[in-house]
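Internal QA ticket QA-208
Title: Verify multi-chain structure generation after dependency bump
Assignee: T.L.

Test input:
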Amino acid sequence: MLRKPALLLTIAAGILVPTGLSAAPDPAAKPLKDGATREARPNTSQESPLVSTEWLEKNLDARNLRIVEVSVEPGVFERGHIPGAQNVVWHTDLVETVSRDIAGPDKFTALARRLGIDGDTTVVLYGDNNNWFAAWGAWVLAQYGLVDNVKLLDGGRKKWEAEKRPLDTRNVEVAPSTFTAQAPSPKLRARFADVLAVAKRERDEQILDIRSPDEFSGKVIAPAGIQELAIRAGHIPGSVNIPWSKAVNPDGTLKSKEELKALYAAAGIDGSKPIITSCRIGERSSHSWFVLSRILGYDARNYDGSWTEYGNAVGVPVVNLAGTIWGGK
Amino acid sequence: MRAAPSGEALPLPTRSVSAPGAGRALPVRATLAAAIAVGLAAAAWRLSGEPGGARLGLSLVFGALFGFVLQRSRFCFYCQWRDYLVGGDPRGMLGILAALAAGVAGYAVVFGAWMPDPSGIRLPPDAHIGPVGPVLILAGLSFGAGMAISGSCISAHLYRLGEGSPTAPFALLGTGLGFVLGFVSWNPLYLASLSEAPVLWLPRHLGYGLSLALSLALLAALAWPLLRRLPAPEAPTRIDPLRAVFVLRWPVWLGGLAVGALGTLAYLRVGPLGVTAEIGGRSRQAAGALGLLPDRLEGLDTFRGCATAVRDALLTPNGLFIGGLVLAAFAAALIADQFRPALPTRGQVVRGLTGGVLLGWGAMTGLGCSVGTLLSGIMAGAVSGWVFGFAMFAGAAAMLWLGRRTGLLA
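Actual output:
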């Protein structure tokens, strides 16, 4: 028979142990939710570049997981984000703010360290507007060698909110990493000369223009409400038009691999030739770049110069189906 | 104790017109007010159930609460200033300072969670931190003069619309016209001055703790001389609580504390308090459609403040905020028997329109009004809020002095 103090201790342990209660405020020692994994690497299937909202909610406390929100609208992150997420502002953090370029190695190193991202960290990116800028983030990270460990939250913020999953307004503190960025890989980024070579049929590659049909045809230079930042309307010769939204289900998730394959194959894009994705400033096209490169495994590069570079260039071939002159008739 | 002059605070009509609920028995007025409250609640519930509508529903609720508080406490920047200048009663101005103190503390709590380090190049999301320069001073002076002429600021005209004020509709119409004039004069002002005006945010330079301490110290310094002029306290009387909430005027300090709390909560969930974004946006849309605007308003949409970006949606957060404000003020006025509609006199029309134009021009070029730039700005630690505030009260005092000298203003 147990003596009284020992009995009390046993009862206390019996209450505390199953709930995982811990007196230590160490965030890493938080109780796990049902079905959560706490391995060094969260148990995502490594080949999939997407994670589901359900998986993410179960793995919020997983170690070595960094959740990063890249939204366009200011204040969205601050007024409620996925618990544990960190904020990245695409137009200051992921780009150079004076010259037009992605963030340089020094700037990117500082960002990755602040976010606690290393080569073996699983990074889940998500954002508003159908993950447009989260996909842009994935494209920038990929150029610095962070490819397979970077995932997109399928359906993004929209689906997480629609499913009424929890949001948090507090900031998480993560231990900085020691990541050091090398020069970005040129393999995932198309430059003006590459696109021009395709337009002039000097190179056998395909250009996927994901803008709206009216922008592609030259009827308008930019979507409604957006400044016309190009002098000419139309598209790059030889490009095909599949708006980015065709790759997305109504709930914001990406279509199945088979559906996506069929969608692009119908326009002659089947992965047999290298592909260049393009739009107006290169962010919506990084969404389609993600689909082609990461989901279908095609050889794809994103052309971030896009129409605001090509449509302003002097002496290059342009197709303008609508026959507009200076954006008018 | 001297009786505080009413100014235009409670317009007592010379010619009453028949309107629903006006001067009727309490049950009729209470039923109508309850119907409005239920309608507002139902609308908020309906909106929040729609996809992406949570923000719209909340805006309506915050607007209604703001309108109720403004009407109940007569939270009107001009009337309180006039009460002090003409009647010597400092209580209203102390109420405004109370609102600022509560909001400054509330914002500091929110900022600390959202942006633990304020020292970088970033500003807290959509806080009203505007450029500080000569244009802001001109805007404040114009807005203050407009308040003195039309009888109150834009937010007070909105709640008085709910009280049936004969001046408010003309003042708000004038405000819209003033906005158009502001847009037309924007580009030269931007190129000459605004583009180089610094955007000064106190926490970036002082940190949150010192910034909070400095703001509170400034408010205390402003309150000190006012506190010395307080009237003798009235003998306490037993008041029925329901009557105290729904019929009697709240003391302004109480309204001020409520405004400070509302400002913080609205910023936390939706955005800073402001009443001119919708007026400005719709004016811009209308003026654009009529071809009155320059093709491009340089840099305007990159500034913080009451954004006047052209709206494409029928329902916007700020539109619902204004709608909630006016309807709740109407309901509150009904219960308190302060809904007194009247046919406007010619003087009221002229004063409303001219004052409104000055209010609108000041609110456009100042990127907000006494609520958006002054209240939400000072709460956020923006130097622009202080500068606009001082200019606004100076402009109102000068116009009031001039008006009383010439016999044109009471």
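Spot checks passed. Residues 4-19 of chain A form the longest helix (16 residues).
Status: verified.
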